[in-house]
Design a protein that fits this description.
With 393 residues, this protein is α/β, with parallel strands linked by helices. It has 14 helices and eight strands. Helix 2 runs parallel beside helix 3, helix 4 runs parallel beside helix 5 and helix 9 packs across helix 10.
Amino acid sequence: MAKPLPAADPGKTRREDRPLVGWSRDEHRSQKLQDNALAAAAGMSIEADAFNVLILNYTMKCSLACDFCCYGCTPKRTETMSLPFALDLVDQAASLGVFAQGGFTGGEPLLFLPEIKQIAARMHSHGMKFSMISACDWAKTDEAASATVNPLADLGMEVLSISYDPTHGKWVPQDNVRRVIAACARKGVNVVIAASFYSAEEKLQHVFPDLVDDPNVELVNRLVLPTGNARNRGLSPQSYQVELQHEAYACYKRIYHDLTVFWDGEVYPCCSVFNRATPGLSLGNLYERTLAQVWDRLEGSLMFRCMKRQGFSALYDTVRRRDPSLAARLPDPGEALGPCELCHRVFKDEALAADIASVFTAVERDRIRAILASARNVSDEVKIRRMLEEAIA
């Protein structure tokens, strides 16, 4: 075990104290186009979670100090979301009508268990289930595990994702994980154990062989990616000696969205470990614009729909056709350890991201002109509506 870190103090936090943005409870949105897109993809395994999730990255504070942490979280970090802001976001999400679930991540959100329970209770009042990501340092006894899991399960926690691998194991004993799994089993909560390894040969199945056939536990193996504390380690497909099919790279969520809000209000269209380091992906700040405005910006973006639903090859092809000189500035997909890193490589440069967005704006204008030209010869309102839906699918 590593030398214990200083205890995290939830009371010493840096929070945003800006006024909350005004919004209307009369604003509603529809998932019809998303649902139609999913139906059109029937038979294709492209969407693990066929619903939209509002994820609160509640804090940068953590009990651990992992050497590959994507956000550099430690007990010394203080950035934490304002509770009134979090509750307001839940109310906005419920009013908007497109989010089926909530989610909590960090840092270690359960350092702030009383606040998390208040937010979960607000979700519960709106009929929203939620998921949780935790390293489980808090589960030092069976009683402690149950004291945390039980109230969260009663408030609608469906999945607890446990971060555990050799690096997390320096701080958290395996017994903690097993206590949490047992507590979750008693409350009917599914468990995902997610690991990040420095070798493509390492697997959670080797760490927890007894859990391989457990129907309530999913084991997820990943490679450590070059971001956060691991950004200067020279990690690449070559260093891992893996061959990846970069031609098929696409967003992990192809139709629906994991909209992730950080403690300071900045919001991103995914829960990728690269999001915070990718300013070109930011959808703005929810202290400055409403959740409805952010949703419209995301769902209304042809660029996002292209790279999510068709993949990065389609995005690259579109840029090549429209602007060969811009295409020459795009990063080599073969150097990326998966679609999330490729997305980061494309959008970390805000100037490049803006130029790509301009290309897709031009494409969208051309599509609109073509639709208008076709619609002039159509008098049937239903046919016109169908033309519009097909054009933006």
